[in-house]
Design goal:
2 domains; Oxidized Rhodanese, domain 1; five-stranded parallel β-sheet; 273 residues; 16% strand; alpha/beta
Length: 273
């Protein structure tokens, strides 16, 4: 079981830490709904306004460029190298936040924990919470000095398609579909249970209080392992974190999720919407 306070930080506490020399703050925003009428990139949004001192966490830099599927995790050694490159060392206290959508930050948290950096938390409420509390903003691009990070990869935090295939026939493993059913036209992996990520967020940027999900998810601790999935392994990290808080220790995110599963023509079922 992980304590909520070891995963999330509230804005009032962050304010007291702003002058700490080992603090590393990152804007982890992903813009999920870009279109031709709104072509702004996440980095351009960061430059418009961010928490003073915060650098930009570019998810593309942590994604495998050779993959057919967006945001597929880099290899372990490359992840470790990139973490050091953006200025994180073992002594760093890392705070992650997003402007708008919490899953951007939970995905970054999952990546850093996967690589072995444990002193990392997510600003609950993101940039909106910082502004609401009266925090100042800046537009200057920031970048921390590169450091030497020696990771310890926790490979069981991500599941691949082969493990998911096996889990379909294993009643001791819970496959959890985390998206609303109207997405992907009701397509799901056979044998999946459902728990919508929307039930874990308020206004898309704030993680709900524990009493909103712990009583229900505690009943899932009977499973040996829980694998959450979504479209591309991002929203599923919110549910994975919820399971950790609820007391489950063996939780993974299916990294490829439905992008890969459907792209590879693997078995699907369709639920009525």
């Amino acid at each position: 079981m992980m304590n909520r306070e070891s995963i999330f930080i509230e804005v009032e506490e962050l304010v007291t830490k702003m002058n700490n020399a080992n603090l590393r703050i990152f804007d982890t925003t992903i813009l999920f709904f870009r279109n031709e009428t709104n072509p702004e990139t996440a980095y351009e949004k960061y430059l418009q306004a961010h928490i003073p001192g915060a650098a930009f966490f570019d998810h593309n830099d942590f994604s495998d460029p050779s993959s057919n599927y967006e945001y597929t995790i880099l290899s372990g050694p490359e992840i470790v190298k990139q973490i050091g490159h953006i200025g994180i060392s073992h002594d760093s206290e890392v705070i992650l936040y997003a402007s708008g959508v919490l899953p951007s930050a939970t995905r970054a948290w999952w990546i850093l924990r996967y690589a072995g950096h444990n002193n990392v938390r997510i600003l609950n409420g993101g940039l909106a919470a910082w502004v609401k509390a009266g925090g100042s903003l800046e537009q200057e691009a920031r970048q921390y000095k590169s450091s030497n990070f020696k990771g310890s990869i926790k490979s069981d935090m991500f599941a691949n398609k082969e493990e998911v295939m096996n889990a379909m026939e294993n009643s001791s493993i819970r496959l959890e579909h985390t998206l609303p059913l109207d997405m992907y036209e009701g397509v799901t992996i056979p044998g999946s249970f459902f728990f919508s990520v929307m039930d874990l967020m308020e206004e898309m940027n704030t993680f709900v209080p524990n009493d909103k999900f712990v009583p229900e998810l505690k009943t899932e601790t009977e499973y040996e392992r829980i694998i959450t999935y979504c479209g591309g392994g991002i929203a599923a990290t919110v549910n994975a974190i919820a399971h950790l808080i609820a007391g489950h220790k063996n939780v993974a995110v299916y990294d490829g999720s439905l992008f890969e599963w459907m792209g590879e023509g693997l078995p699907i079922t369709k639920k009525e919407i």
